[in-house]
Task: structure prediction
Amino acid sequence: MQTRLTDTEFEAYLARIGIRWPERPDLGALISIHRAHAYSFTWETIDCFMGWPSSIDPQDAFAKMIDRRRGGWCYEMNGLLGAALSACGFAVTRLCGAVRRAELGDNVIGNHLTLRVDLDEPWLAEVGLGDALVDPIPLAIGSSTQRGYEFSIGQADGNWLRFHNHPHGGAPTFDFQTDYADEAALENAQRWLLESEESPFAGNLLLQRHFPDRIESILNGMWRTTTPQGVVERPIGSAPEFAALLAGIFQIDEPRTDAIWEHVREITA
Result:
C-alpha cells in the first residue's frame, strides 16, 4: 500500500483544496493543508450505506476524492490527508484508533484511522471525524477551542489517550496511542463496518461538511445544521431536494442519488 502521493498527485490534490505547494513542511504548512482539506471534502458514508466497494488504501481514496470528486470516511479522509502530508515532506504515522472505545471496549479497535505528524513536537492531524477539528492540535493532554467548539485530549486507561469531541458532535470520543500503528486491525475493522449487519454505517447514511460558521450534515432523511449553540433539524422531503443538497451544500458528484434516496426511504419507512 502506497501511503505517499506522487508529486503529480500532490499537485492535483493541492488544486482540489485550493492552495499552493508549501515552501517547507512546517507548522504553518500543516495548518494550511489541514484546514483546506477539512473545508474542501465532505465526510460521508455513502459507499458503506449502499454496499459499494471501499478500501483503506490512500490511492483508492485519491481516485475517489480527487478524480471522482466524492468525499470519504475516516479511512479515506485521514488516509488521503496523510498521503498528501507525506508528499509535502512531513513525517506522518497512521495511528490505529477506536471510536467510542470508552463505551464499547477493545472490540472496536481499528474502527478509526488518525494521524500523528512529527515536527518539533507531535501534532494530531484529524479530519476523520466529520464534525470535529478543522485545524491540527498538539498531540498532548489538554483542551482546545476552534470556531467556538471545545475539544480535548485526556488520559484513558493504560497507554490510551482519549480525544473528546464537542458536545454536539456525532461521535463523542475516540481512543488512540501515540505510537500504535496496526494496518491489519484497521483493515479488519473497516471490513466489519462494510459487511456486518451490526455496522452503524451500513444501516445509516451520514454526511458532514465544515463551513467557517457551521457544520452541515445529513442523517438519513434529516438535514442538520450545527453551531456551537446547538443543532437545527429539517426533514428532506423528496429525491430532487436530496440530490440538490448533495450537489450543492455537500459538493458530492454522484450520479446515483435516486438509488441512495430510495435506500434512505427503505430504512426510514
Summary: Residues 28 and 235 are 40 Å apart (CA to CA). The chain has a mean pLDDT of 97. The domain at 7-195 is CATH 3.30.2140.20 (Arylamine N-acetyltransferase fold).
